[in-house]
């Protein structure tokens, strides 16, 4: 059931020579998804980032799923709790205890505080056992470790589409496993259906790929949707019936807005007594719910003791530093702060969501009605020349080059239908959001004008967004070499480079 690595890890059979072969055989860009427009958008932004004074014509970054709306609350707490930092006068007496060697179990107070936080962000309806928590370098590291634990190179995980583009890198890059798309459709709000799961499972079977699990992201990135009780139950039953694992990425647990209710897989399994819990694993991190992606606090919560043991050993390669553990243990144990932070954060996110939503509604631009995450799934299907991904890319190039907004095209999220775009809204200030909406307004009115001109027989005016669609980078070599800046979501693998 588990991957070879997992099966042999306890006997210290760590060699995986097959993985090396896998690297050489696979095209790096295909495996990591580096060639997707999602990452091109990042490059364009890095070339010419928007600044209200220095670069008012620069690209506005709307491709970054980060909440920067609550940094002030976080800074205030850090300033008021200098004892939580070991590099301050108030905290330095703990320096030696914290800075000495720490093993991969993690500080007990850290795991306890994280377990409590995970309960809070799931409405305190059930308990998490701190002993089942394994640390990792963000959810990124958690995904890879789980993938290593559960699958062998060549095995596959079902993943409903569209999905977060980073998963190609996180689950596949070094493990050599496959991601098997489960096609979801806009006609039913991109719902995960058992029929679609069965079809993808069958396809894998025909392609001789052993399916080891189903990976869901709930709330969804990029859709912003949350799975309802019935759907979640059907996914648990499907995976249990097939005897495969269910990995729930719940990194956006505390980002629901309005009527949306997040239900954790941990809550659902309480209602399914016959569920085989050995098959259930949660991936979590503090990157989204606490807005701390730079601290790389990732969590694997597994109900399977074998996975916990092995993942813990593997976590040596991606531990959360004890300095960060100490800070986070203190911060999350301050329940008053956490409560206030979460409720204020909800208000600010809701206000920003409403701003973008209202702006799009006012311009007659559709979006998937959902309320979670830091993004809106925008529907521009009616702006495509043809219902193809080439047209989507063409439109995306116009949006980035002419409108100067870096949004993520649905194709980069493996969406099955062209014309959808993910628009992030929480990584900028109010003024920048206003500028972004203003640019969209100008763009849509230009399109209207062009369509009017087209109806006039003499009008030979070319669509302004049809010309010069290719992005031009000042120094293309930089990107051809596989160079990505530290802010870029994907960096090239030194292993891959060594082999090519
Ligand atoms: C669904 C999902 N999973 C995992 C990650 C990676 O998160 P982390 O920064 O904790 O590695 C992201 C980041 O955007 C994400 O959206």
UniProtKB/TrEMBL annotation:
Cofactor: pyridoxal 5'-phosphate
Reaction(s) catalysed by this chain's protein: S-adenosyl-L-methionine = 1-aminocyclopropane-1-carboxylate + S-methyl-5'-thioadenosine + H(+)
Annotated metabolic or biological route of this protein: Alkene biosynthesis; ethylene biosynthesis via S-adenosyl-L-methionine; ethylene from S-adenosyl-L-methionine: step 1/2
Any Pfam family hit: Aminotran_1_2
UniProt KW keywords: Ethylene biosynthesis, Lyase, Pyridoxal phosphate, S-adenosyl-L-methionine
GO biological process: ethylene biosynthetic process
SUPFAM superfamilies: PLP-dependent transferases
Catalytic EC class: lyase
Its EC number(s): 4.4.1.14
GO molecular function, one term: pyridoxal phosphate binding
Domain Aminotransferase class I/classII large: 60-440
Domain of life: Eukaryota
Family in the record: Belongs to the class-I pyridoxal-phosphate-dependent aminotransferase family.
Database matches in PANTHER family: 1-AMINOCYCLOPROPANE-1-CARBOXYLATE SYNTHASE 6, BIFUNCTIONAL ASPARTATE AMINOTRANSFERASE AND GLUTAMATE/ASPARTATE-PREPHENATE AMINOTRANSFERASE-RELATED
Protein name per the record: 1-aminocyclopropane-1-carboxylate synthase
Source organism of the structure: Brassica carinata (Ethiopian mustard)
């Amino acid at each position: 059931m588990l991957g070879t690595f997992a099966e042999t890890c306890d006997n210290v059979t760590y060699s995986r020579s097959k993985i090396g072969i896998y690297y050489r055989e696979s095209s790096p860009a295909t495996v990591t998804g580096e060639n997707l427009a999602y990452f091109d958008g990042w490059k364009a932004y890095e070339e010419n980032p928007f600044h209200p004074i220095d670069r008012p014509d620069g690209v506005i970054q709307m491709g970054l799923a980060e909440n920067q709306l609550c940094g002030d609350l976080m800074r205030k707490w850090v300033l008021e709790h200098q004892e939580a930092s070991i590099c301050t006068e108030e905290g330095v007496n703990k320096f030696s205890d914290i800075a000495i060697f720490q093993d991969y179990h993690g500080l007990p107070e850290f795991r306890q505080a994280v377990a409590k936080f995970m309960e809070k962000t799931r409405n305190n309806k059930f308990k998490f056992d701190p002993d089942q928590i394994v640390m990792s370098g963000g959810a990124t590291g958690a995904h890879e470790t789980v993938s290593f634990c559960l699958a062998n190179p060549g095995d596959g995980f079902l993943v409903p589409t569209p999905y977060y583009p980073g998963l190609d890198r996180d689950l596949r890059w070094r493990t050599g496993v496959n991601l098997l798309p489960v096609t979801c459709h806009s006609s039913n709000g991109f719902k995960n259906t058992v029929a679609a799961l069965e079809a993808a499972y069958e396809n894998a079977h025909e392609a001789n790929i052993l399916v080891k699990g189903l990976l869901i992201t709930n709330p969804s990135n990029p859709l912003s949707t949350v799975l309802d009780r019935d759907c979640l139950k059907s996914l648990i039953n499907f995976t249990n019936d097939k005897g495969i694992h269910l990995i729930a990425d719940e990194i956006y647990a505390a980002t629901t807005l309005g009527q949306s209710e997040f239900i954790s897989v941990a809550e659902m399994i309480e209602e399914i007594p016959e569920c085989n819990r050995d098959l259930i694993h949660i991936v979590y991190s503090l990157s989204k719910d606490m807005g701390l992606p730079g601290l790389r606090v990732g969590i694997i919560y597994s109900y399977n003791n074998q996975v916990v043991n092995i993942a813990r050993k593997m976590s040596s390669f991606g531990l959360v530093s004890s300095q960060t553990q100490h800070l986070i243990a203190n911060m999350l144990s301050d329940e008053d702060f956490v409560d206030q932070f979460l409720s204020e954060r909800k208000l600010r996110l809701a206000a920003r969501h409403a701003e973008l939503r209202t702006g799009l509604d006012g311009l007659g631009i559709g979006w998937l009605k959902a309320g979670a995450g830091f993004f809106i799934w925008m529907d521009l299907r009616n702006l495509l020349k043809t219902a193809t991904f080439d047209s989507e890319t063409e439109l995306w190039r116009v949006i980035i080059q002419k409108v100067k907004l870096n949004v993520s095209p649905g194709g980069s999220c493996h969406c099955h239908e062209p014309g959808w775009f993910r628009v992030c809204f929480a990584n900028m200030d109010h003024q920048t959001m206003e500028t972004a909406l203003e640019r969209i307004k100008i763009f849509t009115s230009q399109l209207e004008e062009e369509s009017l001109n087209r109806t006039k027989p003499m009008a030979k005016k070319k669509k302004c967004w049809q010309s010069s669609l290719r992005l031009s980078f000042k120094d293309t070599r930089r990107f051809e070499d596989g160079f990505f800046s530290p802010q870029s979501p994907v960096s090239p693998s030194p292993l891959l480079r060594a082999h090519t």
